[in-house]
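User: Let's play a game. I give you a shape written as tokens, and you guess the letters that built it. Ready? Here's round one.
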């Protein structure tokens, strides 16, 4: 007899509150966005139990500055829920030749599904336990997520790439609407073709959409009168930005990620799953040195990273020069243990500045 859901080692969170709790462990800040994303994914999971191509979970658009966790949140959720995920950068998409095609994205989704099956990890609700032996990668892939990053780069109006972007928007519209595609997963002509129906896929598109939320001036007066809050993105803004109204209608859920503040960056430096200092600590351990970073040093690094205004990526920009120099010093003079405190940071900073000035 198959194990119950409570006993199964493949158990994954299925309720929105469970998904939110798991995201909370690995994605810092963004509480409203994480709640909305968790609910959307719970709806997508619920569809697995009774697939109906006419009634699927809505697709979503995630808006937010660089480095605030948009892609990280999707990766984390997909991994936790055992949902196949294909990520593509919109700037690499090509409608007909050149770059990745949407068909290539579906093939990547099939590959991700094959890996899940091989590892014995399957999406919650994909099939009943007794049907597991009959499951194939197409079944699993059709329950997957297609994540298109840099979606804002597909805008049309006033851009040199407008013709190409319009083709991609129309092609994407076809995929999101649900279409049957014949795929050739390998170059080997002897391999069987795969018939793939895109209905049921969850499409999540994301981008920074710079200045979109700070400049609502293009909205009509009638629209503005009908809004209680004026600082959130609405479909009209996206159409004005350069997207077909028909395409925006297919991604009706808008989830907004906000800038990470200094407190968020401090929290990242305390969260082992996402703390970039873990990498440097392990590297120095490979040199035979234990690195201890004090609370004051973490606060200094978070404060300086916040000034860069590039989200969590700013932590690496702040930390790398310091810890690269520290590792070079350690290779010269072996030390079993090093404390990285404010005094040490100031000394490293002074050395870095001297090197930059050629002294």
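Assistant: Ready! My guess for every position:
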């Amino acid at each position: 007899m198959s194990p119950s859901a409570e006993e199964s080692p493949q158990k994954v969170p299925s309720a929105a509150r469970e998904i939110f709790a798991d995201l909370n462990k690995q994605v810092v800040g963004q509480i409203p966005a994480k709640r909305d994303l968790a609910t959307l994914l719970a709806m997508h999971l619920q569809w697995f139990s009774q697939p109906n191509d006419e009634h699927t979970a809505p697709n979503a658009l995630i808006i937010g500055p660089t480095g605030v966790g948009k892609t990280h949140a999707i990766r984390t959720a997909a991994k936790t829920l055992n949902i196949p995920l294909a990520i593509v950068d919109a700037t690499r998409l090509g409608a007909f030749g050149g770059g990745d095609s949407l068909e290539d994205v579906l093939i990547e989704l099939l590959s991700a599904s094959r890996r899940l099956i091989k590892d014995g990890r399957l999406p919650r609700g994909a099939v009943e336990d007794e049907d597991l032996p009959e499951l194939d990668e197409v079944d699993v892939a059709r329950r997957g997520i297609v994540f298109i990053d840099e979606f804002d780069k597909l805008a049309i109006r006033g851009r040199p790439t407008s013709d190409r972007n319009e083709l991609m928007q129309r092609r994407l519209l076809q995929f999101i609407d649900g279409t049957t595609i014949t795929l050739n997963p390998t170059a080997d002509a002897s391999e069987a073709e795969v018939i793939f129906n895109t209905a049921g896929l969850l499409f999540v598109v994301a981008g920074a959409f710079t200045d979109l939320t700070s400049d609502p001036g293009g909205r009509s007066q009638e629209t503005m009168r009908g809004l209680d809050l004026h600082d959130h993105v609405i479909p009209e803004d996206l159409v004005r930005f350069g997207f077909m109204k028909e395409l925006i209608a297919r991604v009706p859920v808008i989830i907004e990620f906000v800038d990470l503040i200094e407190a968020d960056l401090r929290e990242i430096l305390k969260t082992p799953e996402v703390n970039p200092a873990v990498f440097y600590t392990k590297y120095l351990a490979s040199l035979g040195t234990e690195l201890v970073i004090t609370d004051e040093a973490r606060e200094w690094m978070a404060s300086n990273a916040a000034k860069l205004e590039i989200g969590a990526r700013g932590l690496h920009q702040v930390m790398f020069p310091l810890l690269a120099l520290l590792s070079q010093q350690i290779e010269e003079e072996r030390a079993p243990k090093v404390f990285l405190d404010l005094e040490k940071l100031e000394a490293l900073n002074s050395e870095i500045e001297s090197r930059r000035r050629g002294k």
